[in-house]
Amino acid sequence: MSVSLASPDARGILLEGVSRSFGHERVLGGVSLRSEPGRVAAFVGPNGSGKTTLLRILAGVLLPDSGSVLVCGRAPGRGLAGYVPAGDRMLNWRLSGRENLRFFARIAGVRRGDVDTAVLAAAEMADGGDLLGKRAGECSTGQRRRLMLAVAFLGSPPVLLIDEPFSDLDDEGCAAVESASRRWAEAEGLVLYAAPKRSEGPRADAVYRFADGQIVEEA
Amino acid sequence: MIAPTTVRRRRASVRDAFAAFLRRDLRVAISYKIPFILEIAAIVFTVLTYIFVSKLISPGRVPGGYFAFVLIGLTVSGFLGAGVYQLGSNLRNEQIQGTLEALLASGVPIGGLAGGMAAYPFVSALWSAVIYVVVGALAGARAEPGANWLLALTALGIGAISFVAIGLVGAALVLIFRRAAAATGWLVGVLSLAGGELFPTALLPGWFRTLADLSPYTQTLRLIRSAVLEAGGWADGASTLIVLAVMALGYGAIGIGALALGLRHARRTGSLGQY
């Protein structure tokens, strides 16, 4: 039996007529999209084509001007998606990788007794186990990206939203993202990422090509 | 939730968020060793200053003598600053670090965000209060025999809710205008003046005294001083406690509402992570 993407039991995402402007500039122009769980999907397109804006709307940190958005059958920002923004600003640089992950694990609602297990599992999945004892401020940009990915993996949310997944990562880091994304898809999760080029993210089962705030091609 | 790891997430409770923020902010504070020592030194010098100032003021001018009177003002001022000023400042730090977006994407409840950001500043204010009391006691400040400490702590607890609530309005202003910390610093100054932190409010002009009574800081200080320096009982303090409780409810609702509006504004304008 299939579950409608609008149902609270759904695991995918559903977007209908999502528009967003910044000032006079229209960044998204009525995007509609449904993505079922169990796959890795990529938003690709040139800079400024609306990919990141859409990812931020799905994460619940930006409101659309119009249209409806459902993540797992609910409004975004309910903790059902693990979100990794672009760049390396998300961690407290005074704290170790472990302390940063512990903080976000509790914020994500991981039970106190499970926090250490969740932290270790998430760090290993992001190939960042060796970074747990290192202060975030002493990590390289790529190492911080791994810790940020680990934050998104905490507690296995049904949806992962990753902006520029391979950005600043070395080969091992990219392989870890590839492997984690595949595991998510195999476990009926959904991975959505935004990247300027298809080669800058894990192998995708679905590719949505963006241009001028529209999905111009779906493959 | 799905299978990649065996541990599952659920929506964090306010308590989860409170504990997470407190632990993180304590860790960050401990990572800076020198400020802890400097804070003790700063309190010692402040207390020393007021020991000398108190010698200028004849003992009968205020209940308990000026030194004990001002010591209470200084001690409670830490809680006022923790609520009114520090909340907005902490929110700004979250914005600058880029953690605010991640926090909101994680679905942290608004009460958890508010309580969590206030958690460490209040622990820090409590730590300062202990130092003030110890240094003050060593310097000769004494409570009235029969002082009602439980009433004083109750007043502080209820008053602190209002301080946080005012701070939440400041945090909302940070979300809207980004650089609103100067405004909350100014507000702390006004509340300190109106509250009679360093002098009795009887010295204020009548019209200003009337306005000052609307401030939870004024009411909190009044009740704590009455309980500690005049051994005021529950019956004496009941009416002020009720006023404080009503203020806590009213300001609390305004504060949470303001933060919700501020967050909505930042989500609408896309400025959550901008600084």
Which helices and strands, and how do they pair?
The complex is a heterodimer of chains A (219) and B (275).
Chain A: E1 13-22, E2 25-35, E3 39-44, H1 51-59, E4 66-71, E5 81-84, H2 97-107, H3 115-125, H4 141-153, E6 159-163, H5 171-186, E7 190-195, E8 206-211, E9 214-218
Parallel strand pairs in A: 3-7, 3-8, 5-6, 6-7
Antiparallel strand pairs in A: 1-2, 1-4, 8-9
Helix pairs in contact in A: 2-3, 2-4, 3-4
Chain B: H1 14-31, H2 33-54, H3 66-97, H4 99-105, H5 110-138, H6 149-177, H7 181-195, H8 206-212, H9 216-229, H10 234-269
What attributes characterize this protein structure?
heterodimer; A: 219 residues; alpha/beta; six-stranded mixed sheet; three-stranded antiparallel sheet; 5 helices; 27% helix; globular; B: 275 residues; mainly alpha; 10 helices
Explained architecture:
The complex is a heterodimer of chains A (219) and B (275). By secondary structure, chain A is an alpha/beta fold. Chain A is built from five helices and nine strands; from the N terminus they run E-E-E-H-E-E-H-H-H-E-H-E-E-E. Chain A has helices at 51-59, 97-107, 115-125, 141-153, 171-186, and strands at residues 13-22, 25-35, 39-44, 66-71, 81-84, 159-163, 190-195, 206-211, 214-218. In chain A, the strands form two sheets. A six-stranded mixed sheet of chain A has the order 5-6-7-3-8-9, with helices on both faces. Chain B is an all-alpha fold and 275 residues long. Chain B is built from ten helices and no strands. Chain B has helices at residues 14-31, 33-54, 66-97, 99-105, 110-138, 149-177, 181-195, 206-212, 216-229, 234-269. The relative contact order of chain B is 0.14. Classes of the chains: A alpha/beta (219), B mainly alpha (275).
